[in-house]
C-alpha cells in the first residue's frame, strides 16, 4: 500500500506475477480496505460485502455505487513506477 499526502485515499499495489496494478484501496460502498480482499478473475473483491473492482478499469459491481480510481503502473526491472 502507498500513502501520499496529496491523495486522501491510500493506493493499493497488486502484482499478479505478470502485471502490476494500482488502485484506490477503499471500497466505494462503505470505505472498506480492499487490500484485505482476494484477487479473482482480474478483480479485487471487497472482503466486507463482496463488491468487485476490475484491476484495469476500476469498474465495480454492486453493492459498490462507483468505480475506484486506477493509476497507470508498470515494472521496470525491480522497480514499480506509478503515474499519479
TrEMBL record:
GO function terms (MF aspect)? 2 iron, 2 sulfur cluster binding; dioxygenase activity; metal ion binding
Which superkingdom is the protein from? Bacteria
- What UniProt keywords are attached to this protein's entry? 2Fe-2S, Dioxygenase, Iron, Iron-sulfur, Metal-binding, Oxidoreductase
| PROSITE patterns per UniProt | RIESKE
Rieske domain location: 1-82
- Pfam families found in the cross-reference section: Rieske (PF00355)
Q: Which residues form a coiled coil?
A: none
PANTHER family, alphabetized: 3-PHENYLPROPIONATE_CINNAMIC ACID DIOXYGENASE FERREDOXIN SUBUNIT (PTHR21496:SF23), FERREDOXIN-RELATED (PTHR21496)
**UniProt-recorded name of the protein:** Dioxygenase ferredoxin subunit
This chain's source organism reads Thermus parvatiensis
Species classification = Bacteria, Thermotogati, Deinococcota, Deinococci, Thermales
Amino acid at each position: 500500500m502507498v500513502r501520499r499526502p496529496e491523495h486522501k485515499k491510500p493506493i493499493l499495489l497488486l502484482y499478479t506475477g505478470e502485471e502490476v496494478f494500482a488502485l484506490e484501496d477503499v471500497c466505494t460502498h462503505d470505505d472498506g480496505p480492499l487490500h484485505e480482499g482476494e484477487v479473482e478473475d482480474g478483480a479485487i473483491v471487497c472482503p466486507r460485502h463482496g463488491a468487485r473492482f476490475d484491476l484495469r478499469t476500476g469498474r465495480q459491481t454492486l453493492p459498490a455505487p462507483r468505480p475506484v480510481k486506477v493509476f497507470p503502473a508498470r515494472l521496470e526491472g525491480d522497480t514499480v513506477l506509478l503515474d499519479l
